[in-house]
Amino acid sequence: MWETLLTIAGALGGVETLKYFLERRVNMRRAATQADSDDFHILRETTEFLQAQLRLKEERFAEQTERLRELQRELYSESERRHCAELNLVMTRCDNLDCPSRRPPRSDSPESKPPAL
Description:
Elements: H1 2-12, H2 15-22, H3 24-92
């Protein structure tokens, strides 16, 4: 029986066939390890790409936030300037309708009436 198996093994490739059967498990582990290594490499590249994208988005967000804050500061200062002007107008306005130096003149104040001819 052994002689028959050795003859068949010799006919099918001899030593290479024996090496295949003996190293079959080792080759399967090597293939699994290579597949895991490739998967790890792909995952690492994907992680690095996503981190770069996140960093760019954070930078854009910081720039937009700074622009928004600058616009809000300008709006606040303009609003403050407008309110100061309105307060000055209220403080200097003359409510006496017949006052000749009324500021601002209205349609019924003496300054705004056309001169009599």
